[in-house]
Amino acid sequence: MNKSVFEITKMDCPSEENLIRMKLDGLSGIAHLDFDIPNRKLTVFHRGDVDDIETSVLDLNLGGKRISTEETTQSGFEDNSNQKKLLWTVLGINFVFFLIEMTTGLFSKSMGLVADSLDMLADSFVYGISLFAVGGSLIRKKRIAKVAGYFQITLAVIGFVEVLRRFFGAEQLPNFSTMILVSVLALIANGVCLYILQKSKSKEEAHMKASMIFTSNDVIINLGVIIAGLLVNWLHSNKPDLIIGIIVFILVIQGAFRILKLSR
Fold first, then answer.
1. Spatial distance between the Cα atoms of 22 and 9, rounded to a whole number of angstroms
2. Cβ-based neighbours of 168, under 8 Å, separated by 6 or more
3. Looking at beta carbons, which pairs linking 148-152 to residues 24 or more positions away fall under 8 Å?
4. Quick check: pTM over 0.85?
5. Greatest Cα-to-Cα distance within the chain, rounded to the nearest angstrom
6. How many alpha carbons lie under 13 Å from residue 244 in its C-beta half-sphere?
7. Considering 2, 125, 149, 260, which has the largest number of Cβ atoms within 10 A of its Cβ?
8. What 3-state class would DSSP assign to 19?
């Protein structure tokens, strides 16, 4: 048995973990995957060569880099039988907040909230693919990933077009208080999701690992929308909201391309 350790610099939340799991799902010889999100490390226990594993990790463009490969005598691994239940839970949280942010974003005229809702939807897609595709055929997984990726890109492009329209048109100011309140709730939801998934791996360190949420992309986005809401109120301009919207739409498209890589 060999143990290969990878540094994944852009792995800062459970959705990236699931992308990597799905990418490596079809490779033979893998006995166990151990994810350390706080330290952005992936340890792969495998038999045989590491080349295919390394290629698959690098292909996701998550800043992956192999640190070491060595022989190990470890053979007993923790049972992840409750993972499916946990995935359903975090999928539900993310999808509910997609609906909340999309609805409140449209009513409050906030493109920041609309864009953040698509980021929540992107995470839902990742968890959904994990649930409906893992354990099924490789062809089924690829089909689901392709549909999810292109749908996500389509929504993001529509959002871009709307942002451009609002940049050059006379639009009503977004409701800054709604932006701030909903983003704070989304921030809490992201923290809950990370806590739930990390708790399943190490009950003793769950509270420590959950604190990692404050360095993740999801929370940076939530804080960005909160700051944009404050600037909208201070400057009496919708430009801060549109700028954060553009940034998040770009991140959503990047995430969609990572999902599409699973369909290859």
1. 18
2. none
3. 148/256, 148/259, 149/256, 149/257, 149/259, 149/260, 149/262, 149/263, 150/256, 150/260, 152/118, 152/121, 152/122, 152/125, 152/252, 152/253, 152/255, 152/256, 152/259
4. no
5. 67
6. 30
7. 125
8. helix
- In this prediction, residue 205 carries a pLDDT of 45
Ranked by mean pLDDT, the top range of 26-30, 164-168, 178-182, 256-260 is 178-182
Q: What is the pLDDT of residue 208?
A: 39
Domain boundaries, the chain: 2-71, 83-261
Q: How confident is the model over 190-215, as a mean pLDDT?
A: 57
Q: Is the pLDDT of residue 206 over 50?
A: no
- β-bridge partners, 45: 3, 32
- The residue behind tokens 């990370």 is 194
**Residue 100, H or E segment:** helix 83-108
- Assigned CATH for 2-71: 3.30.70.100
Average pLDDT over the chain, rounded to whole? Answer: 83
